Amino acid sequence: MELKNGAFTVQGIDLTKIAKQFGTPLYVYDADKIVDQLQALKNAFSNQNLKVKYAAKALTNLSILKLMKKHGAGVDVVSVQEAELAMKAGFEPNEILFTPNCVSFAEIVEAVDIGLMINIDNISILEQFGHKYHNKVPCCIRLNPHIMAGGNHKISTGHVDSKFGISIYQLPHLLRVVKTNGIKVTGLHMHTGSDILDADVFLKIAEILFGVARDFPDLEFIDFGSGFKVGYKEGDITTNVYDVGVKLGKAFDAFCESYGRKLEMWFEPGKYLVSEAGVFLVQANVVKTTPATVFVGVDSGLNHLLRPMMYDAYHEIVNISNTKGTQRVYTVVGYICETDTFGWDRKMHEVKEGDILMMKNAGAYGFSMASNYNSRYRPAEVLVYNGKAQLIRERETMEDILRHQVEIDI
Ligand SMILES: *Cc1c(COP(=O)(O)O)cnc(C)c1O
Predict the structure, then answer these.
(1) Which one of 102, 139, 256, 337 is the catalytic residue?
(2) Which residues contact 294 (CB under 8 A, 6 or more apart)?
(3) What percent of the chain has pLDDT over 90?
(4) Is residue 363 lining ligand 1, measured as CB closer than 6 Å?
(5) Residue 197 clears pLDDT 90, i.e. is over it
(6) CA dihedral 297, 303, 307, 310 (to 10 degrees)
(7) pLDDT of residue 238
(8) Which domain, by its residues, includes 257?
(9) Are residues 329 and 201 in the same domain?
(10) Which CATH number covers residue 164?
(11) 153 has pLDDT over 50
């Protein structure tokens, strides 16, 4: 997103023109930015056998998955359906890591039949897996190191009361289950949340993993999860991936040497790859002055971008129809019959009804968390690829709202 001669552009194309062409509400993604982020990771870990497994749940559109595939990423999925989408986009089953949580053993069996690498996150499923497959099917084990990542409780998955992973305090039990059933563990995994911030926290987590890894002789990779923080507002601290590359790389090399062989280093970023590449465009429907504030009501709501309401996430909001002149303070709200506030007290260039507002950092967990609440259509998606804005998902219609409803005689 670049401000050029008073217009916000993606690859030289004016975003207000894109909004006019495809209508609002609209998600717009910049393919170049996604490729740049992927490249930055590859550069940061250029000394390693690096595998980037894109966390598909962040943004699951087929064209985005194809872009990831084309540029050498693998994929991390959390459901068999996501795996099916990834395969439709061209991924081979062996490029896909399946990291589910609390799914049935039947879904694990389905994933094994497809040929996915399974990441197991509880002892009960591991036991069933061992009984059925012994050492015939390798697996990865998801550990919980109990490290709090960042300050936001809702997006931390490593603390003691988290439902994710097998606790490192259960290591003796875990090892017993692995030994008794002869399970072949080829990977260890940790994902402790989205806000790890810096190299030192990565290192702390890594040291825990390395300590555990010595008990698993068949390892081929260690997966450090995600945790790369992207900036949502000006001045936000972001993860310096080069710093992580240097420090974690050094520690990893030392570990591999003592382990006896060079392992692959895996990551599974979602946000880092797609968040900043996406914007969400909405139209200002109503400007409403109340005794408390001036509301801007837009043609969207928590049905399309849930993060501000669910996580108190901050998304910068910019009036792209008016990029000069007086700035005023507004509260931007949705049209859903709930309190769906996108942002309180936001300074924007004067907003008129009909103006297009841009919410930034909307590439990750935007569309993929969208719903039909209030019987609203989910938005369209556009990818700017090779200098052209192309529709990659049509806006829904009444047919989509009615699909699967069964009317009975009443
Ligand atoms: C969601 C998820 C990720 C991606 O997290 P980001 O914060 O988007 O980078 C990675 N790994 C697992 C297992 C996940 O569930």
Answers:
(1) 337
(2) 287, 288, 328, 329, 330, 331
(3) 85
(4) no
(5) no
(6) 100
(7) 81
(8) 31-270
(9) no
(10) 3.20.20.10
(11) no
